[in-house]
Every structure is written in C-alpha cells, then in structure tokens.
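Chain X:
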Amino acid sequence: MLHLCLCFTVMLGLTLVEFPLLVSTCGRETCIPGLPAASTMKEGGKGGQRFKITELEASTLKPATLRGFVKRSEPVIVKNCPPDLFEILGVNYSPEIPADAPKDKLLIDQFSLPSLEGMQTWLYKFIGKRVLYLARFSGGYKGGYAHIDR
C-alpha cells in the first residue's frame, strides 16, 4: 500500500510539473533539435527522413561526451557497458511474468525510486541525473502504444 501511495504521489507531482509545459506547447509542433518536424517527415520505410543514432564505446566514453548528447536531446547508444551494471536488474526488477498473461499485449512493471547500486553510480557519473522511475516492458511489444523512451 505504501508503494502505491508513493507511486501516486510521484505521478501527481510529475503531472503538476509537466502540465504548464504541455499548455505552453499547444498549437506548436516540437521536435528534437536537428530533426525535422514530424509533419515534414514521410511515413513508411522508403523515402522517409531518418536521423542518425550515434554509437559510443563504453570503455572510452567520457562523462562530458554523454552529458552533451543528453543536453542536446540527441539519441545515442552506449555499447559494451560492463555487464555487472545490469545484474541488479535481474535480481530486483525482473518479476515473473504470469503464465496466463496474453502474449500479444505489452506488460509494464514500474518501480519508483529504484535502488540500482552500481548502475545508479555509473548513470550519475556519465549523465549527472539520478533514476527516479524504472519501467520494465515485456510481452508483445507491438501491442503497446507509441511512446518515447527517455
């Protein structure tokens, strides 16, 4: 019950913070810097404009580099991160998927203020932000709604 109350409070707080931003963008189309507005992009695989996703190697990555990508809202993939960073996810944040769960539906498990140990330290060092919310997607990913991972 405490977890539910905490989640509700966090979500309410986020809503109150985001609402003025939503109102301020009404009627205007926004986009990632350097990416054309959605109305100018073509649908489908052929002829549509694409944006480049930069790939960075974790072993040579400098905090200022990754923080720059985050600050500019540019998509980036960090490859070959130390596997031990992810061990905590399997231990604490991988609940069993119910056997009767529909395979064509997207299931989302959410965790507020997760304790991520080494991963939290790494993220704070390279991004300068703490993890306040963690979501695990499972099941039929195509059964979910369009979303942006951030």
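Chain Y:
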Amino acid sequence: MAQIIKRGLFMSFSPTSYTAAVLILEATNAQLTSVPVATHIDGTSAQSGALCAVLFFDQNNTTDGVVIAVYPNGSSGIPTPAPGRVVFVTGTQQITAQTINNGSTSTFTLNSGGIPGGALAVVCKVQLTSSTAGALAHLAPHGASDITAYMTIGGIQVVNATIYESGLLPLDTQGRIDIKAIAGNCVIWLTTYGYIM
C-alpha cells in the first residue's frame, strides 16, 4: 500500500461535511466527490477553481484520501479578502488598572493568554474610568499614523463612572498596541478573549 500525492482542481467545498469535490488533473474525467478536507483549510481558502494537493493513503483506492493544501491557480482560487480566522481563547486580563495621563500615549504588548505571535488583531473587552467627565481613550496598533482611526472608549458623563466596550483591536507586527488618554487621566483594563490570524 503506497501513499501518493496528486494534484487536483478544487471544484467545491462543503463546510457541513468538511469534504470537497476534486478533479484529479492526471485524469481530467475523474471527479472525486466527498473527499475529506484537512481542518486547517476553511471556507475562506477553499475556493472553487483553485489547485489542490490530495494525499492518497493507498494509491489504488481513490476513496482513501484527504485534501491537504489549496493554492492559487493563476488568478483563480485567490481568496478575496485574504483568509482570516477568528480563534476564541480563555479570557485573560492583559492590562490591569493602568493609569494613562491626559495627552499621554502608553504602549502595551498583548502576548499572553493564548495570543500567538503573528496575530493580526485581538478580540477584547476594554474598561475605562476617570475622575474627569468627558475623558476618553483611543486604542490602536502601535505606531499607527492616526490613533483616532481605530477603537475609542469613553466620553464618560459622570465622574468616576466606568464604561465598557468590546471589539476587534488590530496589533502591530510585534503584538503591540498604543493607548492615548484624552480630556483627562484614564484608568484602563483590557481583557483579550480571541485573536485573528
């Protein structure tokens, strides 16, 4: 029983059964159906018209295989937008009661609690309080040219009130963010519970 990898044309993907229809290129009239797909491939990357690699565990049994890779076929099979996967992890407090003075920017690295290096963004909950009415904070990837273009929390109406926000916060390539306090000193907590690769 010899294993073999064959090149194919990815015809369709079923996320329900996690299987694909594949046309094996060496035998253009042989379309295989219900071929299992490796779980690292998802609906964003399993594009019709893409090329694929199918590993057959027994080269004489076309029903005993798995699609192990999907890749562009010239201009076909290129995901638009590029694949991005949200992964949820156990909530981890990354920033605890950090005071940021009015007009100041602080930088933090979000690399614990299951957030891997190379993550593009985090799913987070942010908590802010201030002794100044109207205080707010801008959060952005470290070094962003416009820190106001990303997440903002605050504008509190009552002194010492607490405001909560949740959202997606982009990271720089080293997993860092900047937080800038505006209109008053701010105390910040930040919890992550997911990331995007």
